[in-house]
Specification:
Layout: H1 3-28, H2 33-36, E1 39-45, H3 52-71, E2 80-86, H4 91-102, E3 107-112, H5 116-129, E4 133-135, H6 141-144, E5 153-155, H7 160-173, E6 178-184, H8 187-202, E7 206-213, H9 221-230, E8 234-238, H10 241-252, E9 262-264, H11 273-276, H12 278-281, E10 286-290, H13 300-313, H14 326-346, H15 351-358, E11 364-365, E12 370-371, E13 389-393, E14 399-401
Parallel strand pairs: 1-2, 1-3, 3-4, 4-5, 6-7, 6-8, 8-9, 9-10
Antiparallel strand pairs: 10-13, 11-12, 13-14
Helix pairs in contact: 3-14, 4-5, 7-8, 14-15
Length: 405
């Protein structure tokens, strides 16, 4: 290669760099690297373990919101980008992931995924670092009602304070009077134990039996036998998909006259529960708590828009009722839009300023609710009892509201 060719190549390179700099200046008003890098949002969820469908749904809801926000020019003249880590349901891994995400200089907040035990484990680190922790799926009351001041946790999700009462009311409305509580031995299970027993007492019902189990249990027949011996007429379940499957199979194996109806928290719907117990579902009576459902959304027009946006990114899903773990989708979608409003209000990517701004958003028209306001200094739970519904699986394994059965 001769000197002329080298000179020409050098000149082309210089021109290309000059054009890039000119475009950058026109777009941002400066050439600061901070102004052109995307603003990062973290997501640490179960992406590959038993509740991976919940993590996938949260991720997809967040990505749809990000696409909409970026199409409008992003926030503060910068695009938003999602960084995903996988805690696989392990609290210690969740703590490590949280530290790694929070160390990223352009990261402003972290979305948390199932489970409550993971969320409880990372609370000290969240507040030590001072990073907004946004919860689209974890119901434990202490996750938000955590005693920290200032509190960096904000939730668009179920809260057990309301869920326990709701599930007991569902049992009461169905005519049951002696509840057997079957609870996972975690912070989530203990959160529900407190809420449920209080709700049972307030309705003059009875707690016939309280049975606990650990993650990975393979036989719940002894717990069922204890409940039957105590005279329980309904099982109130707090479990994730693997343990929920164990219960349904154990119940279906009993003689029909001995099978107790099950009213469950929403944890069983975060994974491939229905497909794993397909042959047994028709043998048991199972209802469970939900929030968002495409068959009966709070705002049908907004749900239609969300599904159209979903199909643009994930065209392989043809039927909206086949979207797994739909509440995670809706909750994450609303949370990311709320976060974007908070960043704009704060006028910066300072995490503490964004935390403060989340408490001052006046209103937002979300797919889950007309938030007026979503959060206040004294309330970091955006959803209340009015957002809860009773659902069940239909013969296709789709989640449907009970009235649509």
């Amino acid at each position: 290669m001769n000197r002329v060719q080298l000179s020409d190549r050098w000149l082309i390179t210089v021109i290309a760099v000059a054009v890039w700099l000119a475009m950058t200046i026109c777009y941002t008003g400066s050439v600061s690297a901070d102004d052109v890098r995307p603003i990062l949002i973290g997501l640490d969820a179960d992406m590959s373990s038993a509740s991976a469908q919940s993590g996938q749904s949260i991720s997809r809801g967040a990505r749809i919101a990000l696409e909409e926000i970026n199409a409008r020019g992003g926030v503060l003249g910068r695009s938003l980008s999602l960084v995903v880590t996988d805690h696989r349901g392990n609290p210690l891994r969740g703590r490590d992931n949280m530290a790694d995400l929070a160390a990223m200089p352009d990261l402003v907040a972290i979305l948390g995924g199932l489970h409550t035990p993971v969320a409880l484990e990372v609370l000290p680190l969240v507040h030590e670092i001072g990073v907004p922790y946004l919860i689209p799926w974890a119901a434990g009351t202490p996750v938000v009602h955590n005693g920290y001041d200032p509190n960096f946790v904000f939730r668009v999700s179920v809260c057990d304070q309301f869920a326990g009462d709701f599930l007991v009311q569902a049992a009461f409305d169905s005519g049951f009077g002696r509840a057997g509580l079957l609870l996972e031995n975690t912070g989530w299970g203990r959160s529900n134990s407190e809420a449920m027993t209080g709700a049972i007492d307030s309705r003059n019902m009875e707690t016939a039996s309280v049975q606990w189990f650990n993650w990975g249990v393979t036989d719940l027949s002894p717990a069922l036998a204890a409940m039957q011996k105590a005279g329980a007429d309904v099982v109130l379940l707090v479990a994730n998909p693997p343990e929920g499957q164990v219960l349904v199979k154990a119940m279906a194996s009993l003689p029909p006259e001995d099978r107790l109806p099950i009213i469950s928290h929403w944890g069983i719907t975060g994974g491939k529960f229905a497909s794993q117990v397909k042959d047994d579902l028709g043998q048991v009576s199972l209802m469970f708590l939900q929030t968002f459902n495409f068959a009966a959304p709070p705002f049908p027009d907004r749900a239609d828009d969300l599904f159209r946006a979903y199909q643009r990114l994930y065209p392989e899903v043809e039927n909206r009722m086949d979207i797994p773990a739909a509440p995670g989708l809706a909750h994450a979608y609303d949370l990311v839009h709320l976060l974007a409003k908070a960043i704009e209000t704060a006028g910066s990517t300072d995490r503490a300023a964004i935390r403060d701004a989340l408490e001052t958003i006046d209103c937002h028209a979300g797919v889950m609710a007309d938030y007026q306001p979503p959060f206040t200094p004294d309330r970091h739970d955006a959803l209340g009892p009015a957002s809860l519904i009773v659902a069940r699986y239909n013969y296709r394994g789709q989640v449907v509201p009970v009235h649509s059965w």
